[in-house]
Amino acid sequence: MGTKFVTMGEIMLRMTRPNYQRVIQGRTFDGYYGGSEANVAVSLSMMGDEVDYITRLPNNNLGNDCRNELRKYNVGTDNIIWGGTRLGKYFFEQAASVRGSSIYYDREHSSLMSLRSHMIYWPDILKGAEAFHWSGISCALSESASDATLEGLDEALRAGIHTSFDINYRKNLWKYGMEAMDVLVPAAKRCHIIFGDTGEMQMLVGQKLPAFEAMSTDYKMDLPGYEKFFEAAQKKYPNCRHFVMAIRNVVSANHHFLTGMTFSDGQLYHTGIIEIEPVLDPMGVGDAFIAAFLHAHFRWRGKHQKQLDYALTASAMKNTIMGDFNLLSEQEVIEAGNEFYKKGIFKEAIAPILV
């Protein structure tokens, strides 16, 4: 068994029309369970880690089915809190050609929104864990859910456990009177690993990042500009040892360019650029990146370039897998990453290549 992780957040039911239809078309939906922290939990478990996923589910058949789906991938569900009235869901329209994707949420009064302080006994749950992973989404849903999430962060810090934070800023979720930055900035200042996309990192740090406009894999990135940005981030968040960012340029719905970057222990690391065409399902791609980085961070300690290359590989491969979960083993990611090395995208193989 690998590293023990605890992740916490809301899992939802994603409803998607088949064959790129719009929500107003057709008669059937394909259903997938997913949510940022649940996606991370499944990915970590698929790679051989021990994962305990914390959420709140309604005590009905849909809640039971959701739990069983997590169990299928060996994610720990014993500490799920049962209660509330409903599982949140959302309707996802897949992008096609020049038409972008759309999401319609139906999550008001979900079970996690009514989660409250002291419903979760964090000392027992975090016992033996190496890392606690959470995101800004659960803090956005309600003040009580935010309090319960930050209790977990407080206990992890008291216990000397690594804390991993995905910014996951969703403007439309913050409705209960608190400003996102008033909650997330103080919490982020206590975390050891911070993940975010370009917009989220800019918001958290308060500075602009260089543009990423790759139209080929030989695109030249403004590395001094990124380094200057992350040096400012380090000053604002001195307890953070790793700022980690997946960077994407969407050329069309089915054609993306992807790269990754981490500022770890005061040094900037970056990968080459991967071209992805066709993109089959982009949902959960960022979560796949986060999970793979966390896995690699504890699997290959101190090997920052290897950690980043592994994370980017997993994220790129997720684009080929339908649903929110990245269903790849560690060996499958390594083998794909080594193929990227052969193509010159990475400077070294993730693991020795057997001839």
Biggest sheet architecture: 9 strands, mixed
Q: Can you give the mean pLDDT? A: 96
Compute the number of strand runs. Answer: 15
Q: Give the helix tally.
A: 11
Proportion of strand residues: 15-25%
What's the short version?
The protein is an alpha/beta fold and 355 residues long. Helices cover 35% and strands 21% of the residues. Strands 1, 4, 9, 10, 11, 12, 13, 14 and 15 form a nine-stranded mixed sheet that branches. Strands 3-2-7-8 form a four-stranded mixed sheet. It has a two-stranded parallel sheet with strand order 5-6.
Architecture overview:
The chain is an alpha/beta fold and 355 residues long. The chain is built from eleven helices and 15 strands. The strands form three sheets. Strands 1, 4, 9, 10, 11, 12, 13, 14 and 15 form a nine-stranded mixed beta sheet that branches. Strands 3-2-7-8 form a four-stranded mixed beta sheet. Helix 1 (36-46) packs across helix 9 and helix 10 packs across helix 11 (330-342). The longest helix has 16 residues, at 143-158. The radius of gyration is 19 Å and the shape is globular.
